[in-house]
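(Deposited chain)
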Amino acid sequence: MNEAKGCSARSGRFLFVMDNTKLYSQLEEFLSGSANQLKVLHKGDIIEGTIVDIRPGTIVVDVGFKSEGIVAGRELKAEGFDIKEHKVGDKLLVYVVKPEDDEGQLVLSVRRTQQAGTWIKLEEAKKSNDVVEAVVAEANNGGLIVELGKDIRGFIPTSQLDASRVYTEGAKKVGKDISERVQKKLTSLIGEKIQTKIIELDREKNRIILSEKMVTQARDLEQREDTLKKVKEGDVLKGHISGLAPFGVFVNAEGLEGLVHLSELSWDKVDDISSVYKVGDAIEVMVIGILDGGKRVAYSAKRMQKDPWNEAISRFKVGDIVDGVVQRVVPYGAFVRLGEGLNGLIHISEMSDKLVKDPSDIVKLGDPIKVKILSISSTERHLGLSLKAALETPKTKKKISKKELEQAVDEAIEAELPKEG
């Protein structure tokens, strides 16, 4: 009996082990089925569910895995979504706001699903370096706050905006008055659409930094390469003023950025560039130099204008006394304007018969004066002028009577005759 019991006991133990093994096998088979797998939901998950109930201001959604959640309040408000257009049984893409709230309820959102879709598109745009359109919503001292989609905003720093959009002179300036003008300009951009590229994108921190410059520079670079392939010295291009400097103006002509030096702005002397040109002005220029593979490009604006020198040559000649206006006084003399685009120099030695140590003792800026043309050099485009020669009064010869003339002749003859004795 003991043996039997032992056998029975052993058999019992054996049967117990077999039963557990079968149970574990069945559990494993059950859990391996996708329909029976337990899923742990996390905040930020986007899943498809089925509407199982619609109540005023609330939708109950079965997301599978024996889980139901609710979409309610502001989480139901999404662009293009109308609760009245949905019914029980409809499929719905939802965003997990909270896997479990204080009451153990799964909280879902339709609004954030739409946001997540926008974020996904933004992430793809950053990866592909695509252009993203942004609408200006606000302006502050640092730049522009823009909308990229429903409840998604980004920031464009002032430094990443195209300079011509912000600064009147096309280049960054400093100072309180400049800052106030920039702020006013930025505020005026509210409502405008701006083409941008993404510099920084952090979904968790809800941080998006954008750049307009990356778009404009890329566009200019592409156009620049096309222009460089075909342009040569002497060609005429149409463009616009992109910046001002004390030494000239920068011009973007068909994507090719270059400089019109002060000496190439006009045949006439330009003292104040900003009084003649403004950023954004249309301009036609001639290409006069392409260096370093297009890294340095020189333009000329004056060569597109009529040269007044040729007309001056026909109107004036050496010896003429003409009217002029003192344009500039320098230590070695004074420059005088005789007409549009025509200037000459009075050297200090030609200012007076007396010794002149300081030309400003003789003439002042803006003085109208008469000068005599001493020389005209076509090759050097130079007029040599004299003030003292123009001031000289011609010496008049004394008229003599007939009797005095006869007497003078007699005296001359008598002086030539040989003496008698």
The longest strand covers residues 46-55.
